Amino acid sequence: MDRVQPTFFANTAQLSVLRLDWRFLKKWDGLAEVRQLGLPDLNQRQRGALAAIYHHISKNLKAGVGYNFTNFSDELTDLRYNHRGIFVNLIGTK
Predict the structure, then answer these.
(1) I need a labelling partner for 29 at 20 to 30 A (CA). Which of 44, 47, 52, 62 fits?
(2) Cα 88 from Cα 66, distance rounded (Å)
């Protein structure tokens, strides 16, 4: 892909996510996801899970760590299948 002269193509990939969020001990959040990536053009389907835990640092900021049990990304243009593992996330709101 080139930002100067972008090439666009049709992408029929489909990502389905079933997500559960919960708050506990006032300043902690947890989440669990079941994910499915469907690639109709390739007649492929992959499934997996993701889990994370977050701590509220302030009213508008939380930091977390999690594990992606799948090998695919939620970025549907990234088909490298090397995304399994630990991740760190910082989330801010206005």
Answers:
(1) 47
(2) 7
State yes or no: pLDDT of 33 exceeds 80: yes
How big is the chain, counted in residues?
Answer: 94
Q: What are phi and psi of 40, to 5 degrees?
A: -60, -35
Contact between 52 and 89 under an 8 Å Cβ cutoff? The reply is yes
Which residue in the block uniquely carries the two structure tokens 């079933």?
A: 18
Q: Cα–Cα distance between 47 and 63 in angstroms, integer?
A: 26
In the structure encoding, which two tokens stand for residue 3, read together?
A: 């930002």
CB burial of residue 93 (10 Å; 0-12, 13-18, 19+): exposed
If you search the block for the tokens 């243009």, which residue do you land on?
Answer: 77
Q: pTM of the prediction?
A: 0.79
Q: What value does the mean pLDDT of the chain take?
A: 90
